[in-house]
Design brief:
The complex is a heterodimer of chains A (255) and B (46). Chain A has seven helices and nine strands, in the order H-E-H-E-E-H-E-E-H-H-E-H-E-H-E-E. Chain A has helices at 12-17, 65-71, 108-125, 149-160, 171-180, 197-209, 222-226, and strands spanning 34-53, 75-83, 86-92, 129-135, 139-146, 186-191, 213-220, 231-236, 243-248. A five-stranded mixed sheet of chain A has the order 5-4-3-6-7, with helices on both faces. A two-stranded antiparallel ribbon of chain A has the order 1-2. Helices cover 67% and strands 13% of the residues of chain B. Chain B contains two helices and one strand, in the order H-E-H. Chain B has helices at 2-17, 31-45, and one strand spanning 21-26. Classes of the chains: A alpha/beta (255), B alpha+beta (46). Strand 7 of chain A pairs parallel with strand 1 of chain B, so a sheet runs across the interface.
């Protein structure tokens, strides 16, 4: 069956596999609708939080009259608030993400695009607003978190137009985004992380300092993990374009 | 290989230090398996 426009990366087998699962924030987050995640504010879920002494201005209907009967004081019963969250998916589209070791396999960027599309659909299905930032050594495009049906189409269209290119510089775009975020949410970084770990971790620390929950999906090609090279060869590095020598096994022919 | 292992463990340990979840994906592995395994592990830890 032919896929409808902009559906190239939305894999329904993946969605079926994670259909009955949830992705909950580990930290309290600040959303704007009722959702699945813990909020720092008090609201009206079923989870009791605490009693607070009545003060003028509070609604009389919220007074707990049983406590008043026992203590002769007015108390308001408060409940935990459960909220949705803003999820930011940060997709690295630098040149190194265009690498694949087999003719039939996916490049790291294609794999990352599938992951982004499926996660976006999954998060929006659990009523979490999802946004996308594509970057290489600078920010290429930003789609702010939204919860509308049409937003999914915008994300898929953005992914379809995504091509690998540019040097890897994770820290700059990450710091840039961290400075612009006002509400605590979920940050999902999808990258091959071919950058200095100290700089990347410092950028992640920036998000953490602001109270965000962070997930890092580190994408590596199988040849990068097993390194099946045993004769000398040289090839341009996908990160900088400069030539580098390495050992290559005859059976392995990276594209 | 030793350098690669060092590179991966630096990220894994660094992410743990900043309390970030870290998941390594091999692009040869089917996405549905890798993602469902991660979501299952995270839901158990929650």
């Amino acid at each position: 069956m032919a896929k409808t426009p902009h559906m190239e990366y939305l894999d329904f087998d993946v969605l079926a596999g994670i259909d009955n699962m949830q992705l909950l924030a580990k930290v309290v987050v600040e959303g704007f609708l009722l959702g699945l995640h813990r909020s720092p504010y008090r609201g009206f879920s079923v989870e009791f939080a605490e009693y607070r002494q009545y003060s003028p201005g509070d609604e009389i209907k919220h007074i707990d009259w049983k406590v008043f009967g026992k203590t002769d004081r007015y108390y308001i019963k408060q409940f935990e608030e459960e909220t949705n969250l803003a999820c930011y998916i940060l997709l690295d589209a630098s040149a190194s993400m265009g690498f694949k070791s087999s003719e039939t396999g996916l490049t790291k960027l294609q794999y990352g695009c599938c992951l982004t599309a499926c996660l976006s659909y999954f998060m929006m299905r659990q009523r979490d607003a999802t946004g996308l930032m594509v970057f290489d050594n600078q920010v290429r495009s930003v789609l702010p978190p939204r919860l509308r049906q049409t937003h999914m189409k915008h994300i898929l269209a953005e992914l379809e137009g995504c091509r690998p290119g540019g040097e890897t510089d994770l820290a700059g775009p990450l710091h840039h985004l961290a400075e612009g975020l006002k509400r605590r949410g979920l940050i999902i970084l999808i990258s091959d992380l071919l950058d200095e770990p100290e700089k990347v971790l410092s950028a992640l620390q920036h998000f953490r300092f602001q109270g965000h929950d962070i997930i890092v999906f580190h994408l590596m090609d199988n040849a990068e993990l097993t390194f099946p090279y045993d004769t000398m060869t040289s090839s341009p590095t996908s990160r900088t374009g400069r030539r580098r020598s390495c050992r290559r096994r005859e059976s392995a022919r990276p594209t | 290989m030793k350098e690669l292992r060092g590179f991966l463990s630096r990220y894994e340990k660094g992410c743990a230090d900043v309390k970030a979840d870290y998941k390594l994906f091999d692009t040869a592995q089917p996405l549905e398996l890798a993602l469902s395994e991660y979501l299952f592990r995270r839901s158990r830890l929650n």
